[in-house]
UniProtKB/TrEMBL annotation:
Residues 1-25 form the signal peptide. The lineage of its organism: Bacteria, Pseudomonadati, Pseudomonadota, Gammaproteobacteria, Alteromonadales. It is found in: Cell membrane. It comes from Pseudoalteromonas fuliginea. InterPro entries: LeuE-type. The chain crosses the membrane at residues 41-64, 71-92, 117-138, 145-165, 185-203. Its main location: membrane. Keywords: Cell membrane, Membrane, Signal, Transmembrane, Transmembrane helix. This is LysE family translocator. It is a multi-pass membrane protein.
Length: 205
């Protein structure tokens, strides 16, 4: 793959990763509530999910989604339902006791991994996006394994790198402005954001 082609691909992937949406909300949520470590775990698992979609698109999943819109719609509705579930869970959560803080941190770490991956996996728009994106840069008849690996690694590294940066900057800002303790009002705002994102996903279908 020519360097100029790769740079163009990397630029588009970077713009896609930086666009605000459910993925950003998930990383922010886990960084604010569980710390930078949990935010990074969410970023890593999200990058894995996005990378898998990129690989699947090269294998024909994107074309399958376009050919069978019912399958696409089912995944979209599942993604919206998951967002609504996260929002309602935040809104209905009770303040935790200090004695349970360590246990909560351990649970939050596994939850961060789960949420980060689920937000990517339950977003079939990624398959369509990568199908359209890759078609601009490759000829299916000349696609080799090495080119496919380079493209998928590019997607994974850029997506993961961006959200790792988001987690770090959020943690720094949280400490700088004194948001080191759990803020119930901030939690409520995040819950409303998740529900609003779920509604937007359904309306945009």
């Amino acid at each position: 793959m020519a360097l100029s082609v790769w740079l163009s691909l990397a630029l588009v992937c970077m713009m896609g990763a930086m666009s605000p949406g459910p993925s950003l909300a998930v990383v922010l949520k886990h960084t604010l509530s569980g710390g930078m470590k949990n935010g990074m775990l969410a970023a890593l698992s999200h990058g894995i999910g996005v990378g898998l979609y990129a690989a699947a698109s090269l294998l024909g999943l994107g074309a399958l989604m376009a050919q069978f819109p019912t399958l696409y719609q089912i995944l979209v509705y599942l993604g919206a339902a998951y967002l609504a579930y996260l929002g309602l869970k935040i809104l209905l959560a009770k303040p935790s006791n200090n004695e349970l803080q360590v246990q909560k941190s351990e649970v939050s770490a596994s939850k961060a991994l789960q949420d980060g991956f689920a937000i990517a996996f339950l977003n079939p728009k990624l398959a369509i996006f990568f199908l359209a994106l890759f078609s601009l840069f490759i000829d299916p008849q000349n696609l080799t394994l090495s080119i496919g690996i380079i493209m998928c690694l590019t997607v994974f590294v850029i997506d993961t790198g961006w959200y790792l940066l988001v987690a770090v900057l959020t943690e720094v800002s949280k400490n700088r402005f004194g948001f080191t303790k759990q803020n119930p009002w901030l939690d409520k705002i995040l819950g409303v954001v998740f529900i609003a994102l779920a509604i937007r996903v359904v309306i945009g279908l």
